[in-house]
Amino acid sequence: MQELSIIVAIGKNNEIGKDNNLLWRLSDDLKRFKQITTGHTIVMGRKTFESLPKGALPNRRNIVLTKQDINIEGVEIVHSKEALFSIIAPDEKVFIIGGASIYELFLNDADTMHLTKVNASFDADVYFPNFAEIDWELITKEEFSANEKNEYDYTYLYLKRK
């Protein structure tokens, strides 16, 4: 069975974006995202894909889940959760990278979660769905302070479903 992970950064109120953009600049967290997902499969919605500055992320299998009938060079398109699972190999490591409706669709299927909690509140129009932290076991917790490359304090949590 493939490993399904959610990877997300959220503000204090589960904020994840506004106007199809990120709300903060955390250089070290973006580096962690790249390090964790490189060489694996990433799944996102169409709007999340459109928010990527350079299109498909290199050295990853990029899959977009959308209802729209579109073609994107270098990206596989699926139209349902079932269609996604039908093209994923049993030993494939899959990361759900957003947006909100995609996170909600896969939240109950995820085995692990790479969760960055940004220690600030933001004006947002997109939020990560509420989830019961009691259903997750904390494996790793690291705290980071704001600096010249990271504008907010943040905490990185690695969680595994109980």
Structure explained in plain terms:
- The structure is a single chain.
- With 162 residues, the chain is of the alpha/beta class.
- It has a single domain (3-161), classed as Dihydrofolate Reductase, subunit A.
- It is 19% helix and 33% strand.
- The protein has an eight-stranded mixed β-sheet with strand order 5-4-3-6-1-7-10-9.
- The radius of gyration is 15 Å and the shape is globular.
**Computed CA radius of gyration, to the nearest angstrom:** 15 Å
Question: What separation lies between the terminal Cα atoms?
Answer: 17 Å
What is the level 1 CATH name? Alpha Beta
Adjacency order of strands in the biggest sheet: 5-4-3-6-1-7-10-9
The strand count comes to 10
The residue-averaged pLDDT reads 96
Molecular shape: globular
Helical content band: 10-25%
| Tally of helical runs | 4
**How many strands, what sense, and barrel or not for the largest sheet?**
8 strands, mixed
CATH topology: Dihydrofolate Reductase, subunit A
Structural domain tally? 1
Strand content: 25-35%
List the helices and strands and how they pair.
Blueprint: E1 3-10, E2 15-17, H1 27-37, E3 41-45, H2 46-51, E4 61-65, E5 76-78, H3 81-87, E6 93-96, H4 100-106, E7 112-118, E8 126-127, E9 136-144, E10 154-161
Parallel strand pairs: 1-6, 1-7, 3-4, 3-6, 4-5
Antiparallel strand pairs: 2-8, 7-10, 9-10
